Amino acid sequence: xxxxxxxxxxxxxxxxxxxxxxxxxxxxxxxxxxxxxxxxxxxxxxxxxxxxxxxxxxxxxxxxxxxxxxxxxxxxxxxxxxxxxxxxxxxxxxxxxxxxxxxxxxxxxxxxxxxxxxxxxxxxxxxxxxxxxxxxxxxxxxxxxxxxxxxxxxxxxxxxxxxxxxxxxxxxxxxxxxxxxxxxxxxxxxxxxxxxxxxxxxxxxxxxxxxxxxxxxxxxxxxxxxxxxxxxxxxxxxxxxxxxxxxxxxxxxxxxxxxxxxxxxxxxxxxxxxxxxxxxxxxxxxxxxxxxxxxxxxxxxxxxxxxxxxxxxxxxxxxxxxxxxxxxxxxxxxxxxxxxxxxxxxxxxxxxxxxxxxxxxxxxxxxxxxxxxxxxxxxxxxxxxxxxxxxxxxxxxxxxxxxxxxxxxxxxxxxxx
Length: 417
Hints:
Layout (H helix, E strand, L loop, with lengths): L9 E10 L4 H15 L2 E9 L8 E4 L2 E2 L2 E2 L2 H4 L1 H18 L6 E4 L5 H10 L3 E5 L4 H15 L13 H13 L2 E4 L2 H8 L8 E3 L24 E5 L8 H10 L7 E5 L4 H6 L1 H4 L4 E5 L4 H7 L2 E4 L8 H8 L3 E5 L13 E3 L4 H13 L1 H14 L5 H19 L3 H12 L7
Parallel strand pairs: 1-2, 1-6, 2-3, 6-7, 7-8, 8-9, 10-11, 10-13, 11-12, 13-14, 14-15
Antiparallel strand pairs: 4-5
């Protein structure tokens, strides 16, 4: 059943961390901005607000009051997430009949999802990564192969309490929101029906990531290859180092590594990192400029939910060389070069190919730039809003039509948060 495009969708958006901070906090913040631009009526419940959102978005903190924030260290991370979940679930009960759909984030959604189910409200659970059991298994295997231990409470160290809670959340959600086919497949492989998964995308900020003017490609100029992200086993930096040093590109080019290292991982890679063509930059705040100055972005990750740096690189005129675990927006020989996970010979060939074939590098770059306007955060917000409409229509046929008919009288009211 097709829902009318002019009907308002009232969304309770639950995010337990600092909305607008780094990593997933940035992702959630951009998602809220994109949804607001698309016309969703958003009631955001977040642990704390780190960065402002559009004025039409109603925001309520769960773990902060004014500038004071309840520190996770005081409660413990898991207890803080559970507290957020309990607060949002209680607020949702008070909002019965005023919310069309709930969008929640992992590890802080169990009570919220159950409450929504009791109230007959459809729910979406964000999956910023692959199935957690899959992620634990593949990262653990690779760490054991390399001899690099993970700290006990590292996000990818096996934690049965975390896994158990997440798997309960998976079962309660109306739909799981997966941002890539790779992530979706990890759920299908564990028996989830296709109908339980909704495919959306993340985007990039075109006001921050944009290309610099480039002169004609000089075949004698060395390539600049860039890695951006947390330098840990999961991201596959060791594969990139092997491939770079096997390729003739390293003789005249440079490999820039922007990100903080897991100490044991850096020690394992110390000999390769000492090569004069490799520059370890540490944490950087100028990633957009680094992308504009680089020819290729490398991300040979072994497990990924989407890979934001891929779209950011394309928007910057930087060609992604990535594993198949990254977003399928990276299309092999169209706007990127894609290799199988852990396939160092293929990645070596791809680096060498772009080192030797500058017209191909130019064509991939231009194709990426042509795709970029369709993969911004604004575009991602519109796509996600359409998913909301579809899920609501399937869950409660006629709900949006009814809301549209009474929306005028309520249009200027704020919900009591």
